[in-house]
Amino acid sequence: MPTPTEPYPRSVLDLLVAAGNRPVFEHGPRTVTGAQMLGIVRRIAAGLRAAAIGPGDGLAMMLGVTSEAFAATIAGYVVGARVVGVRPGLSDGQLRHVLHQDIAAVVTDAATRPEHAPRTLTVSELTAAPDEVGQLRLSGRPEDVARLVYTSGSTGTPKACAQTYAAMNAAWTARPATWPPAIRELASRLQRYLVFGSLSSQVMMEYGVLTLAAGGTMVVADSPTFPDAITRHRASASVITVPRLYKLVAAQRSAPADLSSLRALMVSGSPLEASRLREARDVLGPVVFQGYGQTETGTISMATPSDIPPSVGFPPDIIDIVIRDADGRPVPPGVDGELYVRTPAQAIGYWAEPAETAEVFIDGWVRTRDLGHFDDDGRLYLAGRTRDVIIVNANLHYAGPIERVLATSPDVAEAYVIGAPDEDTGEAVHAFVVPAPNRAPDLDSLRTLVSERLGAACVPATVTIIDEAPLAPNGKPDKRLLIAAIP
After folding, report:
1. Do 436 and 411 touch, CB atoms closer than 8 A?
2. Segment 236-256, tens digit of pLDDT
3. Distances from the Cα of 209 to the Cαs of 14, 104, 167, 205, 224, in angstroms?
4. Does the bond joining 271 to the residue before it have cis omega, within 30 degrees of 0?
5. H or E element, residue 365
6. Per-run averaged pLDDT (10 residues), the chain, 487 residues
7. 223 and 312 belong to one structural domain
8. Partners of 380 in the β-ladder
9. Alpha-carbon distance 305 to 426, whole Å?
10. Does residue 160 lie within any of the structural domains?
């Protein structure tokens, strides 16, 4: 794939120039055009340079979801800094860790100095700087780290994925001519894309840039409650987690809202069970896009509303995927193995984590620790995680297949399986299920279902009914929090 000759974020700045007087950001009564957003970027970049922030400097963003937050992120790239998004909800210890990762300054919305911050720069101070004359000077060097994106922590402690300016330039998000077919279809539906939570989210920000490239508008939802946010803002698209999707489907069944504006829901964070996807399509229409990717790699594949569940679609030609068995040998179609992936914009490793980097980034490939297979036509299917295993009587059993079997019951809306120490078997399977609306799962029947499909060793020692799965700060189900709830 050809890459631009100028450093990132030239492709994004060109999109703002092309947008001109078209609205690109909407927050309540305030509308910001492409030209106005470019002006904010220029002023913040000038302010950062005046504050002696430049190539190689760590720049942490502790900002809300505003046009200035978007502009500050782009301006950080303009001056060649190492941009670090700080998501809300971090514990004091996590925040201290992030702000001590070679951070030169913290950009904030207000004049309050965040605890642990080495130096604070407010948006108001930065935007007060005189604008630079002429075309913006881009200072990013190809080999420098452009951003650190923290992983979700779903397999342990969050780590900072380091992505270089060269990798950012190789990404296709801001360049329509390089879009794969699934992304091109999604882009056609991004007229009004809801943004909420935090622009430090890689997913939220990348879809924002895609919206800009597609000619759409980012619309801020201060209260991202579905379906209210969709109807209130007449949104055409939004990112949604699996638990939120389930709740939206249930809400539409019981009290349908006017979702006629909705054209795309981008499911993110965790796999979507096939029967639940079919239900979502029945209730919401052909609007569900299921993305598969990792912080380390970016988007790997995307299923469009017309794809066959539970496939996550056809990976683009620019993505290299090899599926290997436990001995590292490639497996044929139809056989599950671990996915090793290579993408143009992948990270180069984990910041200040050489041991973890060596374990995951191997000879140019990213070891995803996800299990899956291709079918004969090249569709990709996921089957769980290599670390999501339960060792029963010295035999490995993956949680994913057990969860999917439980979720096939019409009485079950969601299923989560974990392992816990057991005196007799080493570890035992424990299941937690969220009932389908107005249904009461029979726990013995669920155990029988697992036994018939997967064998006695996979039968849960306990099955517990819960109202909803506990969530991590990023909105993903956090199964580790279920351990304390084992009967």
Report:
1. yes
2. 999 998 878 988 999 999 999
3. 12, 26, 16, 6, 20
4. no
5. strand 365-374
6. 76 98 97 97 96 97 95 98 88 81 92 78 92 87 95 61 96 95 97 94 94 98 94 97 87 96 90 84 96 93 93 95 94 95 97 94 95 95 81 78 92 92 83 93 95 89 94 75 88
7. yes
8. 374
9. 42
10. yes
Residue type, 374: F
Three-state DSSP state, 399: helix
Same domain, 402 and 457: yes
Q: Which two tokens stand for residue 187?
A: 């882009």
- What pLDDT sits at residue 474? 63
First to last CA, the chain: 54
- For the stretch 134-154, what's the b/e string if a residue is b when 16 or more beta carbons lie within 10 angstroms of its beta carbon? eebebbbeeebbbbbbbbbbb
Report the C-alpha gap between 437 and 458 in whole angstroms.
26
| Burial (0-12, 13-18, 19+ Cβ within 10 Å), 329 | exposed
**Residue 21 sits in which domain range?**
10-170
Q: Which amino acid is at 86?
A: V
| Neighbour-count burial of 185, counting CB atoms closer than 10 A to its CB (0-12 exposed, 13-18 middle, 19+ buried) | middle
Question: In this structure, are 77 and 164 located in the same domain?
Answer: yes
Same structural domain for residues 336 and 448?
no
Q: How far apart are CA 372 and CA 323, in angstroms?
A: 7
Q: What is the count of structural domains for the chain?
A: 3
Residue 102 in tokens? 């070679």
> Is 5 inside any structural domain?
no
Q: Which two tokens stand for residue 224?
A: 């991202």
DSSP class per residue in 275-322? HHHHHHHHHH-S-EEEEEEETTTEEEEEE-TTSPTT---PPPTT-EEE
Query: How far is CA 457 from each of CA 180, 263, 444, 466, rounded to the nearest angstrom?
Result: 42, 43, 15, 23
| pTM of this prediction exceeds 0.90 | no
Spacing of C-alpha 164 from chain mean position: 19
Tell me 457's DSSP state. Answer: G
CATH of the domain at 479: 3.30.300.30
Helix axes 10-19, 202-214, angle to 10 degrees: 50
**Cα radius of gyration rounded to whole Å, the chain:** 23
Statement to judge: residues 277 and 345 lie in one domain: yes
**Domain-terminating residue out of 149, 170, 191:** 170
Place of tokens 């380091």: 162
Q: Are residues 185 and 315 in the same domain?
A: yes
Task: Assess whether 146 and 46 both reside in one domain.
Answer: yes
Strand intervals (E) in 28-109: 30-33, 58-62, 82-85, 103-108
Same domain, 445 and 477: yes
Q: Which residues contact 24 (CB under 8 A, 6 or more apart)?
A: 16, 32, 33, 34, 37, 212, 217, 218
Tokens representing 368 are 């995803």
